[in-house]
Design goal:
It comes from Trametes pubescens. By secondary structure, this protein is α+β, with helices and mostly antiparallel strands. The chain is 37% helix and 23% strand. The protein has five domains: 92 residues, no CATH class; 84 residues, no CATH class; 66 residues, Ribosomal Protein S8, Chain: A, domain 1 (2-Layer Sandwich), CATH 3.30.1370; 66 residues, Ribosomal Protein S8, Chain: A, domain 1; 388 residues, no CATH class. The strands form four sheets. It has an eight-stranded antiparallel beta barrel. It has a three-stranded antiparallel β-sheet with strand order 1-3-2. Helix 3 crosses helix 4, helix 6 packs across helix 8 and helix 7 packs parallel to helix 8. It is elongated and about 145 Å long.
Length: 773
């Protein structure tokens, strides 16, 4: 090898060795800085996650800076790191940990409204502050100390989740997810259907739909009904739909269902099922396979009990009305049948719509009620009966029709209703006559209200009677008070509680009818038990005329406008005093009697009112002989009214009782306010100004009752006269005279008409005076 080439090779090797030594020296000089960078992450939590931008990039850049500046500031960095390490070591050695007060210092003084835009920003900032201020274990420790070992303080959660649990669980801030969901629930509108059955729908609706309307208003939703399949369609926000579903579920859990067997194996008419359901607030349905069986669904046991009582009463009254005879009184001078000879002025009759000021009995179809009346004629001065010419019932000249072509005697028909009539060892027979109206109703299947009668036009009575016998119409007697008696002050007023029970076994001797070939009108007699409790009279008050008794007017559905037409008189009524609670009297105020009775209806189309006769033969029961169920009920009623048991509810009378081996069903449960009215011979009511010393006037003493049915909350008015002994001719004659008076009472002329009439008479007198002069 040549010398130049050898020198070049050695020079290259020496230069390479020099570079390796320089590189090794630089690497060794940077090792303290790298060691510090390695030791710093060991003092921190590698798993700690900080909300916000990541801290890994600044750390690496700082390390690179330190490496680049290591040859100049290596000693200073090493000194600072040593002091930090010493401070942290002293803290760890002293055992100091952040407390709950340190955590509360991070809590904002005021929480923004969850529905405001500032809430989300404040919530996010608060989470970031907690993550930067505390370690993961410290946040977990705060949760464990307050909430205990729960899912919020679990060891496998992230640091951000611990911070969120502190804000939401310890400080009670709503979560962002809940706010977002609530916002969707408030703003997003959706539709949801709830399948319902017929019973569910009826109970959800409530009385006249008020319950379902209240739900719609409370939750601000729109509710409609889908027919097939039957369901409630609810439209509203998601939150409202959720609340509606919870409300319907709670209501449905309170429904009670029961099957009930009626006393008679007959089905209740559909229209009556609806009325009973509305009165009892319970859903009723006939079981098609078993007549006389009902399915009842209600919101509680009270509704079930009320439905049973009303349904039992309804089927009994339907069965009873089929056997109550209807007689007709036609005055002399009118063609009673179509076979009679024509008179000079024949009387025509028509069905007129009847509108009652008070609710009709719940057993009636109220879609259309009509009363048979004589049609007015142009040539007749008055289309009503003039008793001074016809003689009335007392004269006995009229026609008592027992059938389309048959006539009979009223007294004989009444006494034939009791098998004990005429026997000396039996109690006296008492006959009562009640004022009212015989109303004709349309068939039960018709639900649409109408004023058009089923028989249009005016016809002779024979044709009307024949049409009634051939068509399926129902006629019901509805008691009422003659209108003139509404303007009379009550006399000898008393308050009573009355229960009436009818036997389920039919007639008194095992038969339900008694017929005769001479009289086709059937008479149904029944066994009866009646309990009457007389209550303490209120404090005596001065009698005042009817036009100042606003309380009684309102109870009977009337007002001062019905009498004088002046609304200014309403302000003249004094304030009504509160009636104190009335306790039950002693044992002497409780009366119970049992006996046999029968009803007969008398239709009088020539008069403003009809009559219902009740013939009765009864004996009073001593307390020891009264049914045990009634004795227990009286004891409960006395304790309730006296207030001995403050937590006791008003007792309900038993639906069925037993006496002498026979079962009785409750027919009426009423509260009665009873008074006496005196009616004079001039067919005008006089009670306060009546003078008994007048020998030429024989008053009629009528018993008037304002009755409240405690089962249906319906009010009715009764007016009746009594014949204490039907075997006495004098008593019977006076009884018929009283019936004529009350059934012919007319409304007095209005005050305005009387004033105009007086003015006309005064003008006539002045004209007569001028003529004389």
């Amino acid at each position: 090898m040549s010398l130049p080439l050898l020198r070049h090779t050695r020079l290259s090797q020496s230069l390479a060795a020099t570079r390796r030594l320089a590189s090794r020296s630089r690497r060794y000089s940077a090792s303290p800085v790298l060691a510090e960078a390695r030791r710093e992450p060991e003092q921190r939590d590698d798993d700690a996650q900080v909300a916000g931008p990541s801290s890994s990039q600044p750390a690496s850049s700082g390390a690179d800076t330190n490496v680049s500046q290591a040859p100049l500031k290596g000693a200073q960095k090493s000194s600072d790191f040593t002091r930090v390490q010493s401070y942290l070591a002293s803290i760890n050695a002293s055992g100091l940990e952040p407390t709950r007060e340190d955590l509360e210092r991070c809590r904002p003084l005021h929480q923004p409204s969850p529905h405001s835009p500032q809430y989300t920003e404040t919530y996010t900032t608060l989470i970031n502050n907690l993550c930067r201020s505390f370690t993961k274990e410290q946040l977990r420790k705060f949760l464990a100390e307050t909430l205990g070992m729960s899912r919020h303080s679990g060891s496998h959660r992230k640091k951000v989740e611990y911070a969120e649990s502190i804000v939401e669980q310890l400080w009670g801030w709503p979560t962002l997810k809940e706010l977002e969901k609530a916002k969707r629930d408030r703003t997003e509108v959706s539709i949801q259907t709830f399948p319902v059955s017929a019973s569910d729908l009826f109970l959800f609706l409530g009385p006249d739909g008020t319950d379902l309307l209240r739900i719609s208003k409370d939750f601000d939703v729109h509710i409609s009904l889908r027919r097939e399949p039957m369901a409630l369609q609810v439209e509203g926000s998601r939150g409202a739909l959720r609340e509606v579903a919870e409300r319907l579920l709670i209501l449905k859990k309170s429904f009670v269902e029961e099957t009930y067997d009626l006393p008679f194996p007959v089905a209740i008419p559909p229209d009556m099922v609806q009325r009973i359901s509305r009165l009892a607030s319970a859903y009723l349905e006939n079981v098609p396979s078993t007549p006389g069986k009902l399915k009842i669904v209600a919101k509680g046991e009270e509704g079930i009990s009320s439905a049973k009582r009303l349904a039992s009463r309804a089927v009994y009254e339907i069965e009873e009305s089929l056997h109550t005879p209807i007689l007709t009184y036609i005055p002399p001078g009118a063609a009673a049948t179509h076979v009679e000879q024509l008179v000079m002025f024949p009387h025509d009759y028509a069905l007129f719509p009847y509108l009652s000021p008070r609710p009709l009995p719940f057993t009636m179809n109220t879609s259309g009620t009509f009363r048979l009346r004589r049609a007015a004629q142009w040539l007749a001065a008055d289309f009503r009966e003039r008793i001074e010419h016809t003689g009335g019932l007392q004269g006995g000249k009229g026609h008592i029709l027992t059938g389309p072509e048959e006539e009979g005697n009223l007294k004989s028909v009444l006494l034939r209703g009791l098998p004990s009539a005429g026997q000396p060892d039996q109690p006296p027979i008492v006959v009562k006559a009640s004022m009212g109206h015989m109303l004709l109703t349309r068939p039960s299947g018709e639900q649409r209200a109408t004023l058009v009668p089923p028989l249009t036009g005016a016809h002779p009575f024979g044709k009307v009677r024949k049409w009634i016998a051939q068509n399926p119409v129902k006629m019901t007697f509805v008691p009422d008070l003659p209108l003139p008696l509404l303007d009379v002050s009550p006399l000898n007023q008393s308050t009573k509680h009355r229960l009436v029970y009818h036997a389920l076994g039919g007639g008194a001797d095992g038969t339900s009818r008694e017929t005769s070939p001479k009289s086709p009108a059937p008479v149904r007699r029944r066994k009866v038990i009646s309990l009457e409790v007389t209550l303490t009279k209120p404090a005596a008050a001065p009698q005042e005329p009817r036009d100042t008794m606003l309380e009684r007017d309102l109870e009977e559905g009337l007002s001062a406008l019905d009498f004088d037409g002046s609304p200014q008189t309403l302000s003249a009524y004094p304030a009504l005093p509160r009636v104190p609670q009335i306790p039950v009297l002693n044992t002497a105020g409780v009366h119970c009697w049992t006996g046999v009775e029968a009803d007969i209806n008398l239709m009088m189309p020539n008069r403003p009112m009809d009559l219902q006769f009740t013939v009765r033969s009864a004996t009073e029961l001593a307390e020891a002989r009264q049914p045990a169920e009634l004795q227990q009920y009286v004891a409960q009623l006395r304790a309730y009214l006296k207030g001995t048991d403050l937590e006791a509810d008003y007792p309900s009378p038993p639906l069925l009782i037993e006496n002498d081996g026979e079962r009785y069903i409750l027919h009426s449960n009423t509260s009665v306010r009873q008074s006496e009215e005196l009616v004079s011979d001039d067919v005008q009511p006089t009670s306060v100004d009546f003078n008994p010393a007048m020998e030429d006037v024989t008053p009629t003493r009528a018993v008037c009752e304002s009755t409240l049915d405690l089962e249906t909350s319906q009010k009715s008015m009764h007016c009746e006269v009594t014949c204490p002994d039907a075997s006495s001719e004098a008593a019977w004659t006076q009884f018929l005279r009283d019936c004529d008076r009350l059934s012919l009472l007319r409304e007095p002329p209005p005050k305005l008409y009387s004033a105009l009439q007086d003015t006309q008479q005064w003008n006539d007198r002045e004209m007569d005076g001028d003529d004389i002069l």
